[in-house]
Amino acid sequence: MGVxxxxxxxxxxxxxxxxxxxxxxxxxxVPSRNIAGALGLKRLFFKYEGLNPTGSFKxxxxxxxxxxxxxxxxxxxxxxxxxxxxxxxxxxxxxxxARAIVVVPSGEIALNKLSQALMYGAxxxxxxxxxxxxxxxxxxxxxNYPVALxxxxxxxxxxxxxxxxxxxxxxxxxxxxxxVLPVGNAGNITAYWKGFREYRAAGRATCLPRMVGAQAxxxxxxxxxxPVANPMTVASAxxxxxxASWEGATSARDESGGMIAAVTDTEILSAQIRLAxxxxxxxxxxxxxxxxxxxxxxREGKIDKDATTVVVLxxxxxxxxxxALKNVQPPIELDGDARALAKVLKL
Length: 347
Description:
This protein is an alpha/beta fold. About 45% of the residues lie in helices and about 15% in strands. The longest helix is centred in the middle third of the chain and has 15 residues, at about 185-200. The radius of gyration is 20 Å and the shape is globular. The model has no long low-confidence stretch (mean pLDDT about 95).
């Protein structure tokens, strides 16, 4: 059962909205078994969105955006993407028989993500410039031609993505004290905050979390207070210099009493490896940014250790394995028998 079927009463859908799903959502809220203890945190959970159908949280919003576009009669979808949005849009286009057009910044997208869009049958255009240039171009195109824009500026994307907040409350019994997540184009922090507020208004939650967003140091426009012309970070999913949902992100931060801060690529990659090595969760670099920020906030004494904290892992590590593989030991090549193997392994 997908998010539309599960949360129909909280979504902008009606009798004329087509039934669309890939059984997205219902991703696990995994309790920390090792990192929490190492940090002295009483309750730490990981919302593992990498188990959505195309490997990222984007599927939640995309299913609603696609359903509403089909309801309006649209059969051609377009998006600018650093990878995850393109994979998601292309999958749902394939599922519904629509046409998908993906515009990516040339040379700035993980090959694994690009391969998904291509395999789902999308027409992929690599445009010179960064993500912000690509987004500006597709927004202009969708204004003047009969194509449906499927980036997070589409409000139906935010509507679908808010269902992750619903799932967290449904499982915990209330909202957590802190929600820590990556901030790139800023649609997700906007959506989570919307979801938590709506669930509290409906009487499904009694409290609201502090929203804590993590940007990469080389792509931290919200932290710096101005757009970044040439964003640079190993975390390609948040390599965005001028977030489309900037205002939503700052509202979530300010209204919740939270923060948005930047972490270095070194911190991101270290957190990614530690998460995989100690919790068995392989997440893409962007997903490790909030964990890296949590490490720092704990060191600085800025997190209540008795609180309930949820870290959102937005995408699977299989989306962008190259960055991780550069920081782990390669396979050992061996020509020998069991005794030689035992010697190498120091058994």
